[in-house]
Every structure is written in C-alpha cells, then in structure tokens.
Specification:
alpha/beta, seven-stranded mixed sheet, 274 residues, binds glutamine, single chain, six-stranded mixed sheet
C-alpha cells in the first residue's frame, strides 16, 4: 500500500501545462482553501499490473471531484503482496492484459473475503474490463486457461478470437449516456444476480450477442469502458463519491464541480466513429 503525495503538494507540469498522467501518481493540486467536510479513502487495486488505456485517470477524477465537493481524498494503491488497507471508503480497479490478470490472480483470490465483505456492505466500487472479469466467476482465456475470479459478480467471461475494439456509447437507466472505449477479447455473460449497466447504442460491450454493457450489483459499477471512463462520465463519478460520503458521514453535501472539460470531452467522444 503506497500513500500518494500529501494534499496540496504541487504537481509538476509538462510542456502542455497539464499535470503528468503517468505513473507519477501525484494528486491534483489543492484548489480550495475551505475547511474539509471529511476524508474519503480511495483504494486503487493493482495499478501496477491492471491499468491500461488510462484507467489511472479514474482515480485522479475521484480525487479532484472529491476536492470540488469539499472533501479530502486519500488515494492509496494496493499491489500484489501489499498489506490490504483498513477503512476503505471507495475502490477503483482497472483493466489489464491477460498476462497482467495472471500476475494478480493468486493475490486477488487471497483478498476475496475482504473484498466480498466490502462489496456486500455497500462499499462503492468501479471495476473496469480485466478486473470486471475477475470480480466475476472466472475468465477462460482464448488459449483455454481458466483464471478464477472472486465471484462477487454473477458473471462469467470466455475469451474469443475476436477482439472487440472501439468507441462505445451506452444508454444507462441510472447514469444516462455513458461514453468510453473498449478493447477486449473476453466476452462476458450476466447471470441473474446482476443487472447490466446499460445497453450499447454504439459499440459492443459485454459480448457480441445481447447488446448489454457492464454490470451493476449493490454499489458496484463494472464496465468494459476505458478512456478513462470517469473524466467523460461525471454522473458516474459522483454516484461513487456520493455513496462513499453517505456511508461514512450519513449525508452528502455537494460542492460546485467544474464540469466544463467533462462536457467538452463528452461532446468529442460522442462524435467519434465506432
Ligand atoms: N485481457 C482481457 C481481455 O482481453 C481484459 C482486457 C482489458 O482489460 N482491456 O478480455
């Protein structure tokens, strides 16, 4: 478990004037002098091995939106072999190659009970692609090896020779239009214990048969969408934040997030071809 840089640390800019989005793992700079309404501990699962197509951006968005809402983010990362952090308020996990999934599989299985307990207790979680698959029952890869999952989600995934790649637009009853990018060979089928995140209006989503994308169970949002997902989908980010804050503090008082970049990103993503 590695603590991130302390709140308020300055983040070096690159030539474009933006903070680096690489493995620097710096938090965005503090920009509100108001007293904090409370601290939310966000744990990112396996960022070393499961973090492709910008999935780390989801953690950055949660940190920044927590600040905009007046709360203090505490961003921790959990990698293979680490001690599992206590008092977790929110969990986020990314996608990975089949090889990355093989690297984490034993450690993930050893964390099955703590993650199950957190999930059943209603801890908000966002799991993307490779971790979505391994939060399910299993992922049988294209070459026939079975990577067991931790079975929190009633889903199973079978690798195929077809890679599902491209931009995706999802109609979600809870979150409206969800926009992102998919790249996976595994095809996931939902069991009766979960519902879909939504229906794919553009792109494929869970599999090439039923038009569904992602899964919902308790306060878990599972999705195939990278991009990263949360910068373009603030409604989803705020669901995770609101749920985490309400569980910890009883009620959530929203701040005034700056959605201007999210709106631009959504307009741009919606215009992209498949
Ligand atoms: N390795 C998995 C697959 O190809 C997950 C890929 C991903 O996380 N993008 O299905």
């Amino acid at each position: 478990m590695t603590p991130q840089s302390p709140a308020g640390a300055s983040v070096p800019s690159n030539d474009a004037g933006h903070p680096p989005l690489s493995f620097g793992h710096e938090l965005p700079p503090e920009d509100s002098p108001a007293p904090s309404k409370g601290t939310i501990r966000v744990v990112q699962l396996y960022p070393r091995d499961m973090n492709i197509y910008g999935d780390w951006g989801n953690a950055l968005v949660l940190a920044q939106r927590l600040r905009w809402h007046g709360y203090t983010p505490e961003l921790l990362e959990y990698n293979v072999g680490d001690e599992f952090p206590a008092k977790v308020d929110l969990i986020v996990g990314g996608g990975g190659q089949d090889s990355g999934q093989l690297v984490i599989q034993d450690d993930l299985l050893s964390r099955e009970s703590v993650l199950k307990e957190l999930a059943e207790n209603g801890t908000p979680m966002l799991v993307i692609c490779g971790l979505y698959q391994l939060f399910g029952k299993f992922f049988k890869t294209r070459t026939g090896s079975v990577i067991p999952g931790i079975g929190i989600l009633d889903v199973e995934t079978h690798g195929t020779d077809q890679r599902l790649i491209g931009n995706v637009s999802v109609s979600s009853p809870e979150f409206g239009t969800v926009l992102g990018y998919e790249n996976h060979s595994g095809q996931t089928t939902l069991g009766p214990g979960v519902s879909a995140l939504g229906t794919a209006a553009k792109g494929t989503g869970n599999n090439s048969n039923d038009g569904q994308e992602g899964a919902r169970y308790r306060n878990i949002v599972a999705s195939y969408l990278h991009g990263s997902l949360l910068p373009k989908n603030p409604a989803l980010a705020d669901f995770l934040i609101r749920t985490a804050v309400e569980r910890k503090y009883g009620s959530f008082s929203p701040g005034a997030p700056d959605d201007s970049y999210a709106i631009l990103a959504r307009e741009h993503a919606a215009r992209r071809p498949r």
